[in-house]
Design goal:
Layout (H helix, E strand, L loop, with lengths): L1 E3 L1 H9 L4 E5 L4 E5 L5 E5 L18 H7 L4 H4 L5 E5 L19 E2 L2 E2 L7 H28 L3 E9 L11 E4 L9 H11 L12 E3 L8 H9 L3 E9 L12 H26 L3
Helix pairs in contact: 1-4, 4-6, 5-7
Pfam families: FGase
InterPro entries: N-FG_amidohydro
Protein name: N-formylglutamate amidohydrolase
Length: about 280
């Protein structure tokens, strides 16, 4: 992996070069092994929290971890094109619009003991802006190369906080063209609804059950492309102990191995269905 500036990353995308890089400020990773008509992202995988913010933050490291999406980057890491966030959403949230990306409070608790300075906010929003400059460049390049593109937007959620039974997987579709992409959405649901995971519970996938797909990442790509479907996909944290932070490597590796195959398979069928010019 190499370190590149945002301008260098965008230039490589423009030239259709393959690379595996971290941004100059270590805010996110871009990997492009081949210019295929699909990519995957884990925008909430990051846990890094700038040390200059520690004394101001009222949330503990565990409280931050609890609301992040740990290991989602590993789950999608075998996809030929990946974007993985490295910074915690508590510094700035990549799945929120710029005007709401910096929290004042988070999950019912005040976040900062003293307000962030203007300079601190500007630095955080610059990293947010840099990420979306790359997202836009990549999305446009893939639509230039292919008549249809699909994006797998991977997240996780804390299922133990719900007071009802919730599915292992959830697909949020409220901000995509459900009529146009019904075949692809249904096929993705059927794949996730039957994944053979090493867990002691039924694996189900519902649509718009616990989340509806209201994230900025999905909305941004949808607004800036013509023929790209973003599948906002949530996995419940069956791969860890939410209450202690202990990860279950066998479950994580199983999800990774299965997604390696099924993302490629689903993307192939997506191209067959929607890729005719």
């Amino acid at each position: 992996m190499i370190k590149l500036s945002i301008e260098e990353i965008i230039e490589k995308i423009r030239k259709e070069e393959t690379f595996h890089a971290v941004t100059f400020d270590y805010s996110f990773i871009v990997k492009i092994e081949d210019y295929v008509p699909f990519f995957a992202a884990a925008v909430h995988d990051g846990h890094y929290f700038d040390s200059s913010l520690w004394s101001q933050c009222l949330h503990s490291e565990y409280e931050r971890w609890y609301e992040e999406d740990p290991s989602t980057g590993q789950m999608i890491s075998d996809t030929p094109i990946t974007l993985i966030g490295l910074d915690s959403r508590f510094e700035y949230d990549l799945n929120r619009a710029p005007d709401t990306a910096i929290y004042d409070s988070a999950w019912g608790k005040k976040l900062w003991s003293t307000p962030l300075s203007r300079k601190q906010k500007e630095q955080q929003l610059q990293k947010h802006n840099n990420f979306y400059r790359v997202v836009k460049a990549l999305s446009h390049k893939l639509e230039e190369l292919y008549p249809a593109v699909v994006v797998y937007d991977m997240h996780s959620y804390n299922y133990k906080r719900w007071d009802r039974e919730v599915p292992v997987f959830n697909i949020g579709t409220s901000n995509v063209d459900e009529d146009r992409y019904r075949v692809a959405i249904t096929e993705w649901q059927e794949i996730l609804d039957d994944l053979p995971l090493p867990i002691d519970q039924e694996v189900r996938c519902n649509i718009n059950d616990v989340f509806q797909g209201n994230g900025y990442f999905l909305k941004f790509i949808t607004a800036n492309t013509q023929n790209t479907l973003v599948l906002a996909t949530e996995i419940s944290k069956i791969y860890c102990d939410e209450l202690t932070g202990q990860l279950f490597p066998d479950v994580i590796k199983s999800v990774q191995d299965l997604l390696r195959y099924y993302i490629k398979s689903h993307a192939h069928n997506f191209q067959t269905t929607y890729g005719l010019k």
